[in-house]
Design brief:
With about 180 residues, the chain is an alpha+beta fold. A hairpin with a 2-residue loop joins strand 3 and strand 4.
Length: about 180
């Protein structure tokens, strides 16, 4: 018959540690950014990673960058340009300026990266041709919201977005400027 020894004297070691909420959020969102990379959400991942620093640098894109090319390929950008072209056809002045906001829905990466972006158009008439320049700017940050997009898993995106909002409120995600 086997003998089972029952310890009569044993030591319990207790471990105590504190989990830093900011650090936990940053670890979580580094994983989210990596998942985004693997799913082809390049700019969403770049922007999220940059926000996980205590003092993230602003991001500036030149007019010939891939980011600007991607913006220009969106349905929303094309609609804005068509609207401005229609306005300029009958415009009698030599300069036309317009500021606005574009909500991006047609490109999933940009929708997740910036969702909406401010734009300033400056149009100057030179020799019967309009010279149009556009500046885009955004503050990378999060608002609590429910996502309504059939192309992206809306419950998951809503959860991640609202969790990011909470992470931003505790300083784990830090807003910064994006310009193009």
């Amino acid at each position: 018959e086997p003998v089972v020894e029952t310890p009569t004297d044993f030591e319990v070691t207790s471990y105590s540690f504190s989990l830093n909420k900011k650090s936990l959020y940053r670890t979580e969102f580094k994983l989210v950014a990596s998942a985004g990379d693997s799913m082809g959400y390049t700019y969403a991942s770049i922007f999220l990673r940059n926000s996980l620093k205590d003092k993230p640098a602003a991001i500036y894109y030149e007019s010939d960058s891939d980011f600007v090319s991607k913006l220009k390929a969106t349905t929303e950008y094309k609609a804005l340009i068509a609207e401005v072209q229609n306005t300029l056809k009958t415009y009698s002045g030599a300069a036309y300026n317009k500021s606005g906001f574009i909500t991006i829905n047609s490109d999933k990466d940009l929708k997740l990266a910036v969702h909406g972006i401010n734009c300033k158009l400056k149009c100057i008439l030179k020799d019967d041709t309009w010279d149009v320049s556009i500046q885009f700017d955004d503050t990378y940050d999060f608002d609590k919201m429910a996502w309504n997009d059939s192309g992206i898993k809306k419950n998951l995106v809503t959860f991640i977005n609202n969790n990011a909002y909470d992470a931003m409120k505790c300083g784990a995600i830090v807003p910064y400027a994006i310009q193009a």
